[in-house]
Specification:
The radius of gyration is 20 Å and the shape is elongated. The longest helix has 27 residues. The chain is built from nine helices and no strands. 73% of the residues lie in helices and 0% in strands. The chain has a domain of 131 residues. Keywords: DNA-binding.
């Protein structure tokens, strides 16, 4: 009898991620992952109790990927970088973007716990956002996420007019961010009067 192949948890997660990139999270099955690895299903069950646990690990992988994309963009303006990284993710991982953003799924509930505070901490490093407390930064982030998500949906679904280059999209994000920040500063001052 030939010895059974052993796979590290990370190798299995990466194989599942590769499936999710083209088929979405629902496309991940233990059998498909085993096929991708050229293995039986046994090594997967050694590392994961079920497919749901594997999918949750893939979602964590995606969160780390988005954080890496944010670091890659690193212009020195964290708030700007968040928007650019989001557009990049929507463009490069259309299926996953649609899966995570456009479908009601239980996996995104972990997003705010994991990534939300990370983004707020990044925003605190941005001089453009000096003077805002955590609650105000969350409000700014929410408003920008609404705009950026709409823009990213258009990117992921090929709905943008032809004349909208990546440069034009980024300028649109910058302009909207300035508008949101300016209005938040205005109401912050107005509210303290």
């Amino acid at each position: 009898m030939a010895p059974k192949k052993k796979f590290a948890k990370e190798t299995i997660t990466e194989a599942a991620f590769e499936i999710a990139k083209t088929e979405g999270l629902e496309g991940i099955t233990i059998r498909k992952v085993a096929e991708k690895l050229g293995s039986s299903i046994a090594p997967i069950y050694v590392n994961f109790k079920d497919v749901d646990e594997l999918i949750r690990e893939v979602v964590k992988w995606i969160f780390r990927l988005t954080e890496e994309m944010l670091i890659e963009v690193s212009s020195g303006r964290p708030f700007y970088d968040i928007g650019v990284a989001s557009l990049k993710f929507a463009k490069e991982y259309k299926v996953l973007f649609r899966d995570l953003i456009m479908r009601n799924n239980e996996y995104l509930k972990d997003y705010d716990d994991h990534t939300g505070q990370f983004l707020i901490n990044e925003m605190k490093k941005d001089p453009m956002l000096d003077g805002f407390n955590d609650k105000e930064l969350k409000e700014i982030l929410f408003k920008m996420r609404v705009y950026q998500t709409g823009l990213s949906v258009m990117v992921a679904n090929g709905l943008l007019p032809v004349e909208y280059s990546e440069e034009k999209l980024i300028k649109s994000l910058e302009s909207t961010a300035r508008d949101v920040i300016t209005s938040m500063r205005y109401f912050k001052v107005k509210g303290s009067e």
